[in-house]
Amino acid sequence: xxxxxxxxxxxxxxxxxxxxxxxxxxxxxxxxxxxxxxxxxxxxxxxxxxxxxxxxxxxxxxxxxxxxxxxxxxxxxxxxxxxxxxxxxxxxxxxxxxxxxxxxxxxxxxxxxxxxxxxxxxxxxxxxxxxxxxxxxxxxxxxxxxxxxxxxxxxxxxxxxxxxxxxxxxxxxxxxxxxxxxxxxxxxxxxxxxxxxxxxxxxxxxxxxxxxxxxxxxxxxxxxxxxxxxxxxxxxxxxxxxxx
Length: 244
Hints:
- The chain is mainly alpha-helical.
- It has one domain.
- 69% of the residues lie in helices and 2% in strands.
- It is built from seven helices and two strands.
- It has helices at 29-50, 58-78, 86-102, 115-137, 155-167, 169-202, 204-241; strands at 19-20, 23-24.
- Strands 1-2 form a two-stranded antiparallel sheet.
- Strand 1 (19-20) and strand 2 (23-24) form a beta hairpin.
- 23% of the residues are buried.
């Protein structure tokens, strides 16, 4: 009998129950893989930056490529004014990427397949970018909702649309990541169930689909981290340069 493909997204407690009033703050499998992802990032860049060889080893090369990749993305998307926020965007990208990639391993847990995780990340980015916008421009940041060149008669409607679009940023940012990761892993589990159900004789076709889908999911895991980071850069660009 095939396993329910949604069981892989179950969050369960690890260790004793811990409550803060009525709120359960117990350590879970989701917490575990967030910690594992964070530690893996720290270890990678600690090893990669400890010794700067003239001819870099694989870990050093990976660390340098990651740094250069995000640095160029920030420059191309948000300009030189966004350079002080490099560490923040770099951390966001690497955390989402490692959570996505660890989720591809057998018997692991995909943290980013849960809307609560992606929504908290997106909300944190949204609030942070909004604060930066008001710090940089004061009340003038509200000009972001008043596009230039719009006829006066259409201005109230356009302002309402711009405000709704702005407030929906954390929703669109979080749902995009969550939906892609959840859908991909569900499909992988479904095809894996077909392989088990059909056996050696009839399972070769779903097995080939599973292999192809795994390769695609690895690509999606990287692309979703990239999209998450580049949209953060775009939002930051609006806050810093007030494009409207």
